[in-house]
Structure to design on (728 residues):
């Protein structure tokens, strides 16, 4: 909260002159107090209270404050009252504290009246009475004690013990702020921010929050950090969070740690993030403790340590910090650092969901949706509804998936899109990502590449690394946005640093090709090796190609084969296909055939194309023209123009199967018009010229010969010229 009433009595210490030595200063106060100088007794008592220049002693402080108060020193009476109120060195006694604060106030002490007002405010040592409390806050304010003005301002703002009056509250806050009381400056900032008693003015609000921060108010510093972060003024944000954290504001330390952890406007610094999470956690911020555990769980900036993560999560969950119950469930669900136990995971999700954790309800819904032993679409739907009712925006997106895939309900892509939109508007990363996918695929809406990119950007901003990966790919390819290799590079680099090995592979491609950066084969090779070691087939395949094609290497076919073999073992279809090509070139057709089978089974169209050819000619296997046609059709349907042309030629030629000119004609025509395949255009022109299976049409023949020529087919150019010549 922005308002503060100091209800626990805190000590004010008198600053002492540095002109005297420690011994001289103490001796001077002792002499003065012995000579019945009340101020000297108060100063001496404060030295003992604080332990400044002398051994700290509540007993000695009490002794000197008694002498001071007996001699009617108002500050001495207040100090003595504080000792009784806090039970420091003497028995806790609120009634005696009340009497001493009253005496201090009667001696015209602003702090004494303020302390007395606080006792009336909370009914400590006397009956609770807001009217009396406000009277004493007013006296305190009249004696120029800023805290008294601030507390009276709070009473007028809230209408407690007085009629609510924002203007009076504002005036009192301003008086207290002018006397450098930080909380009052913060309250004025709030009035300007909300337009209370004054015209709404964000500039003025920032001005007073800054004053408050300059007066060492940690709350205001943290607030400014958050404001500047929203404005993407990251350096200012960092500076204010740092100041607040230095003042031991636990939330600010956590906020600053998150900036360093995620690299939001600053370079990622996980070492700094860890220290800040630890400080915030030690100050009692459970969110920071959970974030620290997450670092150990994921191995982010630290050596991965599941036992440490488990211990922190368990302690937090036992303290009913629901997020950690969810994290515990996640560990048991996937068997990370513990024996996999779905029953335990579900129990943790249920516990947290009952405590109104939307995230837990969402995870519980996921179990009901996908776990074969628990599958219950109705319960999944109910859990997702609970998720968003409890403030977890992803619940809308999860429910959208139910409608998208028709699980327990009729498939409704429009409804799914509406739910994704709702989730995204509530800053759900997965909601924005699913919405981006809908626009990318045209599911429930028209395809819209620009909107897809926009929502991938939002999803990435909201922390969805999958969306960031897709966004980087779109920047790299110029999908729904201008090509921007630098942005792609930055995203891939961040993801790669977080051990997203697919991102490392794509980053390697950027360095290999020199997209937006100078070509750097050693960097590319290092990245491919990193990903290959992590069993990412794409990295192994690319590394094999570097050795096969002598890019950044002297070339080594043995190493190339080894890396292609690893890639294929990791089920990377392209790796299987590249290895097959090597065996085919060495006329080891049987091995090549088996690899093409695996590549095609993994849906690699190049592998299927090679397999179709193998069945056509019978190399490494028995000739099977029907299987060959089936595979050529599959590859053709995937958009491969060469496969469509080959299929058309087989039907046109009639040597392997029964001739079918109409099928050939249709395939040639579609492949020529859609894919600009020059051989298809030339053959189509020939069919028109001689009337081969279709009606002869010299005009159409000329048109398609012309297309063949335009697309680079020399025979098409010759046929076009001959046709022109024959017409002359």
């Amino acid at each position: 909260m922005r308002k503060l009433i100091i209800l626990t009595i805190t000590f004010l210490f008198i600053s002492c002159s540095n002109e005297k030595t420690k011994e001289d200063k103490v001796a001077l106060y002792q002499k003065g107090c012995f000579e019945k100088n009340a101020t000297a007794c108060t100063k001496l008592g404060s030295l003992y209270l604080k332990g400044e220049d002398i051994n700290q002693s509540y007993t000695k402080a009490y002794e000197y404050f008694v002498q001071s108060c007996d001699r009617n020193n108002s500050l001495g009476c207040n100090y003595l009252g504080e000792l009784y109120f806090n039970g420091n060195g003497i028995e806790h006694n609120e009634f005696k504290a009340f009497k001493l604060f009253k005496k201090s106030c009667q001696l015209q002490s602003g702090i004494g009246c303020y302390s007395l007002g606080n006792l009336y405010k909370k009914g400590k040592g006397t009956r609770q009475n807001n009217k009396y409390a406000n009277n004493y806050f007013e006296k305190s304010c009249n004696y120029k004690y800023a805290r008294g003005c601030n507390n009276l301002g709070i009473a007028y703002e809230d209408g407690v013990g007085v009629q609510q009056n924002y203007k009076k509250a504002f005036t009192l806050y301003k008086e207290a702020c002018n006397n450098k009381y930080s909380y009052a400056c913060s309250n004025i900032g709030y009035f300007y921010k909300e337009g209370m008693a004054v015209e709404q003015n964000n500039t003025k609000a920032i001005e007073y929050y800054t004053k408050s921060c300059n007066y060492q108010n940690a709350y205001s510093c943290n607030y400014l950090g958050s404001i500047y972060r929203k404005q993407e003024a990251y350096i200012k944000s960092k500076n204010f969070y740092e100041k607040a954290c230095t003042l031991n504001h636990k939330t600010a330390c956590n906020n600053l740690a998150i900036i360093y952890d995620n690299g939001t406007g600053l370079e990622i610094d996980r070492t700094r993030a860890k220290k800040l999470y630890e400080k915030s956690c030690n100050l009692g911020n459970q969110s920071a403790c959970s974030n620290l555990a997450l670092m150990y769980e994921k191995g982010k900036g630290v050596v991965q340590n599941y036992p440490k993560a488990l211990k922190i999560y368990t302690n937090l969950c036992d303290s009913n910090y629901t997020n950690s119950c969810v994290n515990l469930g996640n560990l048991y669900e996937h068997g990370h650092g513990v024996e996999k136990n779905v029953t335990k995971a579900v129990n943790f999700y249920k516990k947290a969901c009952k405590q109104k954790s939307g995230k837990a309800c969402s995870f519980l819904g996921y179990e009901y949706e996908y776990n074969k032993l628990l599958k219950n679409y109705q319960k999944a739907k109910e859990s997702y509804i609970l998720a968003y009712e409890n403030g977890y925006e992803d619940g809308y997106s999860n429910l959208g998936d139910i409608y998208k895939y028709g699980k327990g309900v009729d498939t409704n892509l429009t409804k799914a899109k509406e739910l994704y939109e709702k989730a995204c508007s509530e800053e759900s990363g997965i909601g924005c990502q699913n919405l981006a996918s809908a626009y990318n695929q045209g599911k429930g809406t028209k395809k819209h590449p620009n909107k897809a990119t926009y929502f991938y950007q939002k999803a990435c901003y909201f922390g969805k690394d999958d969306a960031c990966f897709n966004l980087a790919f779109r920047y790299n390819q110029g999908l729904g946005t201008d090509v921007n290799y630098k942005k792609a590079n930055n995203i891939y680099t961040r993801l790669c640093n977080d051990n997203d090995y697919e991102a490392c592979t794509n980053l390697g491609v950027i360095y290999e090709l020199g997209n937006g950066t100078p070509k750097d084969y050693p960097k590319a090779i290092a990245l491919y090796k990193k990903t290959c070691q992590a069993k990412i087939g794409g990295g192994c395949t690319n590394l094999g190609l570097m050795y096969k094609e002598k890019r950044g290497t002297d070339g080594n076919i043995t190493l190339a084969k080894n890396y292609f073999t690893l890639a294929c073992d990791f089920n990377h279809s392209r790796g299987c296909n590249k290895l097959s090509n090597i065996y085919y070139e060495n006329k080891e057709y049987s091995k090549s055939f088996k690899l093409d089978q695996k590549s095609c089974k993994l849906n690699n169209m190049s592998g299927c194309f090679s397999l179709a050819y193998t069945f056509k000619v019978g190399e490494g296997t028995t000739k099977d023209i029907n299987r060959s046609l089936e595979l050529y059709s599959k590859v053709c349907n995937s958009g491969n123009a060469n496969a469509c042309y080959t299929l058309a030629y087989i039907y046109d030629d009639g040597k392997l199967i029964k001739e079918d000119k109409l099928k050939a004609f249709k395939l040639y025509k579609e492949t020529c018009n859609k894919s600009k395949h020059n051989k298809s255009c030339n053959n189509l022109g020939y069919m028109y010229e001689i009337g081969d299976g279709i009606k002869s049409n010299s005009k159409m023949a000329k048109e398609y010969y012309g297309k063949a020529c335009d697309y680079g087919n020399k025979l098409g150019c010759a046929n076009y010229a001959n046709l022109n010549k024959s017409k002359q």
The CA atoms of residues 130 and 161 lie 5 Å apart. Residues 1-19 have pLDDT under 50 and may be disordered.
